[in-house]
Predict the structure.
Amino acid sequence: MGDQIGHLPLQDIGLNNIPAVPYLLTFSEPLGTVLRLGLRALETRSAKDGLSVTYTIGGRTATAFEFLYGSAPSNPLHGAAAEIERVLLGGADTLLHRMTAGRTTGATLAVRESQIPSLSLEQPEQFAISWTRFANVYQDAYPQLSTWASSLTSIAAASEQFWPTIADFGLAYNLIILELVNTAETANLKALFGDTWTDAGMDAIQAAGRLYAIDMSIFESFAPATVDNLVRFTPGTITLLEQDAATKKLTPLAVRVSTQGSAVVYSSHSASAGAWLYALQAAKTSVTVYGIWLGHVYHWHIVTAAMQMTMYNNVPPGHPLYQLLEPQSNYLIPFNEVLLILWSFIAPPTSFDNPLKFLQLMDLFAAGREFFDDDPGVTIRKQGLQEAQFTQDTSWDRYPVVQNLLELWQATADYVDAFVSATYATDAAVAGDAALQRWIAAAAGPAEGNVRGLPAMASRAVLKDVLTSLMYRVTAHGISRLNNSANPVLTFSANYPPCLQSATLPPANANLDTRALLKLLPWTGTIGDLVNFYFTFVFSPPYEPFIPSGGVDTNLPFPSGMEDPRNRAVVVYRNRLIEFINGYEPSNPQLGQWPLNIET
Ligand SMILES: [Fe+2]
């Protein structure tokens, strides 16, 4: 029996680390994805119509909508179906060939047809341009506006807001990125930070266990892009932060910004005000790009799709594993495929402007990385984060991203525990399940799933570990669709810039005023693309909700109804997600907005 789902021959182009990227050669599923995405473009129309606040930029006065999209946006996916057909008719090698030839799609980006050219903002408050009046986003966010704008003019405000902006709001980007600087790492960091290390007294802070780092240097080796005549730059950055022993607040001390062999170290003590504000924006840019492509897409799309592909290829319908996994294994594989084919239509505005560059980033990140390394608990442990250092009143309340993701993890682990306990009476039953053995062997096989670090399926305990890691990725991904995850913090793009618009690194003593700083941050064209990206998730309903509209005890995945303890566990899982959403969005819990699958 041949595999139903094939994958891109990425190893032929030297990408040996990335898990397999499944590729469906039939036209119907990718086309279905395009049609569904096209529908979403219509569904987000009301939210875009709410971009009605008037701004004056570059001597022009117009509404936010007109600056971002012109008089009326065309359907961004116009022409997309024809493009899909062209690529798929060529077979699996065609996309790869086009990528390696540096040419991705024959179609051009149709999202933005504004008569107004892309402009740099002139006042920090203008980043509110992406707040819609729809669903009261603008009105509810307005009280925050002067505070967030001040992060572009006041070094005190910028330093103060830097860490909470990440730790409180990086849910959709899976931002478990902070690491404790241990003694072994100090020599390397000392060399990179030079005099700044000594001047800021880093040795003593490190020795006291209060020195932390956010290492985004992975971007150093990737060249900036030029899109629509404007540079898109993701800097490599390493940010050092000091934790206050009493308040547990983290404050950035220094940022090293680097790209392709050149680097500048900015210190909170000695850099000019403008240069320090730049450095924090550069750090936030690399954190955002990490969040989009590595925190979200690598952890939740790429590894998951390789596991789902091998599941479909090896586990027959009717098998208990299929009953468990299939309901949450739809849409992702064709979505990933369409993302690669229609990169310039769908991908957010980062310097990863073509699918080959994206796959190269995935491959670099995947080097030496194992399946369980993506689990939040493992990540936290490897990064040296101690619960006590991030807990004031309740567990991890000083790092809400971790707190929330661990809650989703535990709910998933309990569900999987009930499934495995009810399905496999003994460890021998796990070892003797031929379909399971085939699946995991295929997932681990370099020529198939290419997922490293999967354990031998010899016990119920290891099966629980694997299934929890897989199902958690699907469920946790759903948080990206909740309004709170994007609005208003991420949509104020100075909080989470998707790119810088110049690759020049200002010197640490640069005289950089607000207008000069704003020229380096996202321009209106970039903001328009970014808003399009966010609105697609948060202002369209999921294809299938996690909480069934008929109630938590409907749509049960296992036969024999509530007699089956696994179905009872599903109900518990759904109720815990309801509890989670109520806590996450207390004023307007969107119980129907959490998707069952990874849809986009
Ligand atoms: Fe996603």
